[in-house]
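User: I'm curious whether this sequence folds into something compact or stays loose and floppy. Could you predict its structure so I can see for myself?
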Amino acid sequence: MTDANPHGGTVDSSVCYRHPNRPSFVLCQRCGRTICGECQTPAAVGFHCPECIRESRANAPRVKSRVRVAMSPTSGVPVVTYSIMALCVVIWLAEIFIGDAVTAYLLYYPPLTVAEPWRMLTAAFVHSTSSPFHLLFNMYALWLFGRILEQLLGRWRFLALYFISGFGGSVAVLLLAPISAVVGASGAVFGLFGAFFIIQRRLGARSMQLVVVIGINLVIGFVIPGISWQGHVGGLIAGSLVGLVYTSTRRSSQKNKQVLGLVGVVALLLAATIVGWVLLAARFGL
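Assistant: Here's the prediction. I'll summarize afterward.
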């Protein structure tokens, strides 16, 4: 897809206008061109591209000052991804050294949905201490896909994707396994899988390898005991819905529609939560 370039010519809206080999979902707030992490300069609202930054500096009033303000593009470091990984590791260590109280406070157990709703989100940061592979697998998957998606979407969109996907995983557990206690970032990670698949298809990239990866991991959840396949499926669906919202509202003029789309996904999950709780309460007399 190409758009008119305000500086002349046309530009492919799916990739950075300065680095054609780098797909991105972040647009310059001034000219609307797509920019990658290296070309983004934080502004009061959103990001600006290098050319718009140069133009604003050239047109700015010349004022003598002894204070020098440095402005440079972001380094492109996936801060949100690394922060989530660090938080998961810290909580896992706390579980080991402090004890089961940490796990008991943060895990998701559907009968506690109304009394302690935060568990539907905090479960995505807690992992089993019986084997380090639970944490290692999820962190490796987050490291692989999180860095790419954070660069494509921007930090806040990526953070919204992670939390909504984790929420979707908990909702599926409430609906399909209402007496199971679950922990782990798997639901959120499967949400990243789903969003990445949708984005790949939107950008015209091949996605068969990703389909195979998703399929294998789904099968593992069904075959190996003790794995919440319900959380995997719920996260995958929620992440795919968020991916559809993002790919359908990429232009800067569609920002409000994008927010409404995300609100719609969350509202859908909240409605499913209410239905799940009513069924659970009726079944067990809560």
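Summary: Confidence is low (pLDDT under 50) at residues 1-11, 63-75. The radius of gyration is 21 Å.
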